[in-house]
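QUALITY CONTROL LOG
STEP: pairwise intake check
CHECKER ROLE: data steward
CRITERIA: each record must contain a sequence immediately followed by its structure tokens, with no blank fields

ENTRY 1 OF 2
RESULT FIELD BELOW
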Amino acid sequence: MCRFVCSAEFESIHQKIKICPITAHLPASWLQKLRTHNYSIQRDGATPRRRRGNPALISIIVPVLNEAERLGPFLDDLEAQAGDWEIILADGGSEDATLEIARDRARIAASPPGRALQMNAGAAGAKGDILLFLHCDTRLPPGGLGLIEEAMRDPAAAGGGFIHRFDRDDRFSRFISLSANTRSRRWRLLFGDQAIFARRKVFEELGGYPEVPLFEDWGFSARMREAGEIALIEEPITTSGRRIEVWGKWRCFYLWLGLSVLYALGVPPEKLARFYGHVR
């Protein structure tokens, strides 16, 4: 038994943008972002899967960059989820087989690289009432989309996320997950590997993710708290420990702790990003 805790197609050619019904409803601030960043939404690929009699649709937005190795199993896992959903791959310029793997299984949103830019690009063409931002190295629990639907039946909920665990069971990984989950339960601050979800209306009203190189997830979830209740799903989501493998335990610990403290003290994300590296 799971427990919930609540607290376009368009083209841009240089400076000219063609707006169709998919983007016509977006706020002016979003349209300016689209013009500035040359987002493009391709309408070929998978169409949304719908259930008769249920109008809710979850748009699953996945930021990717050269994820060919992981993408196939990730999509297999998503396609096994029950519910009404569409998958939008927000690509930041992959040079491997990522797009080829996704071609018939997801819609593609292209943007400049940068997780916040990519997720905003994917959201711009989403059809769903609920937006779910899911990393390619993260797996939903069985029935995860249904848990999101159930959580969002509360009209006071602006969005939410899942508690977290790694795909390994060593003491260090358990400690990091415990720290993240304690933060989420106490302050309702969510990180991207917790599968942040939000009502599309709320996401648009907040202007999407802040387009910064780091802590865009923290920044967005902090603003989402002000828009309504945050639903924390007490069924863990599972994330790859690949950063731990590449960096080692102590570097991970000091980086995650140190950068979080500096960000909370007001150090700009642009300065912090140079310490973080490129391991996604």
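ENTRY 2 OF 2
RESULT FIELD BELOW
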Amino acid sequence: EAEAKTLFEDVQKRFGDLPHPIHGTLGKFADAHIAAIEKPIGTDQPAPEITGTTLDGKVMKLSDYRGKVLLIDFWADSFGPSRDHFAESKKRLETLKAKPFAMLGVNADGDRKAALQASQKAGLTWPSWFDGGTGGPIATRWDVDQWPSVVLIDAKGVIRHLWAGWPEEKELDKAIADLLAKAEK
């Protein structure tokens, strides 16, 4: 890790202003990797802020959802397994609509317009950040390298569960129910 951090710091210094197709500049690319090294994501830790643009071009912040149990789905239409849970997720949102619960997505497709069309075609009712690809700044910061991946955050903004891949529905529903019970006390 120390060697990787040194290499990313070198990229910042020598090439920081050069363009990067997803992160904007190589400096921002290096920043995301350094943050992931210095402050790795883990359970029982406060969720780091996510600020980004949704598939439909609106600015969205993770902290706007504080007070709710959050399910974050790292997905891409280009990866079939990402689509397998959409029907259950829509049912879950409908069932929990009166509860302090929200679902957010982080999309890793490379084309915003195509990702928006895929989201609309699938009838997704939750907003998704556009991350610009699997190596986007959000996925990099959250150290996501499998699609889908799922993060469950409690109402206080603390990460409670991390899954590489989509968890079993019963396991996910129980984890959500447990966090909702705590949030509603």
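INTAKE CHECK: passed for both entries
DESCRIPTIVE NOTE, ENTRY 2: The mean pLDDT is 92.
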